[in-house]
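Q: What structure does this chain adopt?
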Amino acid sequence: MPETVGPGCAFLDYDNDGWMDIYLVNSGPCDFFKPSKPLRNALYRNNRNGTFTDVTEKAGVPGNAYGQGVAVGDYNGDGLPDIFLTQYPRCILYRNNGDGTFTDVTAKAGVAAPGWATSATWFDYDNDGRLDLFVCGFTEYSKEKNVYCGSKQMRSYCMPNAYPAVSSWLFHNNGDGTFTDVSKESGIAKELGKAWGVVAADVNNDGLLDLFVANDKVQNYLFANRGKGRFEEVGLWGGVAVNAMGLARSGMGVDAADINNDGWLDLFLTNVDNETFSLYRNRKDMTFDDLAIPTGIGAATMPYSGWGVKFFDYDNDGDVDLLIANGHPDTMVEKRIHGVRYAEPMLLFRHTGDKFENVSAKSGPIFATDLAARGMATGDFDNDGAVDVLVGVNDGAPVLLRNNIGRQNHWLGVRLIGKKANIDAVGARITYQAGDLRGSAYKAGGGSYASSHDPRIVLGLGMRTKIDWLEITWPQPSGKVERIDKLPVDRYIIIVEGEGKWR
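A:
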């Protein structure tokens, strides 16, 4: 079963030269798979001219098991992005050495998470200024426990309910290069699930990062952060656990953003075909309304199975849009279910007020191309302000999409660096004024599926050529609010917490 649910991918600037590099996850040796020739993951350095160079061997980040996903974060606060890989049957943490190489520190750090892990996210759950780690667990699985599914005439990949549910992991950052598994005492381990995707975001505006977890054939989890290291699962009460008929769906990818600029974060969930995806609007009381049907997303997504998903302003007009990567998890589905395909096209929705317009048909040939897409990451690899897209494809070459429309509008790219707050500024909020445009952005932890995004935030301005001001609310334990003016446009800047200016 792990064969059909990868791979993830990432944009990261591993050498801190200001240009996004690429990391791709691949299969690797494990108990059920012995490749005939060596296989490895790949790290590609950005050559700054639209091409990349494979530096995997030099960097020392090949992976060492059956790869699933990747989460990038500066866990030791040295200003260098580190790489965490979710794998079967164990995970791996690569520490960035700052000289173009990485060191496997999994054993010392204590984050192997033995079992089958899928997505992961770095976030500071206890507001001590250090990045902690949440890792999604997906079923109790091994070669010995493999189940035969399908019929005597045709074998197919199993549904998740063929295997027992498991808990996910929460690792607390001790600040000395090691982590403590706090899954049990935090309340995370109490909830057994089959987790694919996770996003960390403060959905109730209490200054604590919560977790929205997509489960397959098990109700989705909304872990409300209650402080003092404790989480309470409130997904059913919040309206995000099951569908309108009370049935658990096949949750896979997730994301969080403030789609209506009301200061409260909304959620998105992808599911398998004939279940519709969900757009959850925040009701400001830890409950949500599913707006998939009235916004047009429900009908458009009904035929598809979604994995990677991201809210971002693809055309830089100041409104948050939506991109989804699709593909059915069962290679034999076309022989089992009429009208459902294994490879499916991606979907792009443009935010137009109360609706999300499906603009896929007029957005490029890739949206008429069928893919067995899985992980999806967003990032500006050519630094033109138009956010590009990287897609991991199951049993196929990855897809790198260059954004040609975002450059037609003005923009400002912002890299936030926390000091008292966590260095990656996960949980930061940005509001900005540009003439008649009042915009906002939020730095969530994780999101999509098994993938990691460009850490920079691009603020769309439309045709406006000036930003009046920008305000940052830094995550706790800082909580500092900084207002900055005299900002440039059409370039990237760095804002360090407490400096009150841009670089």
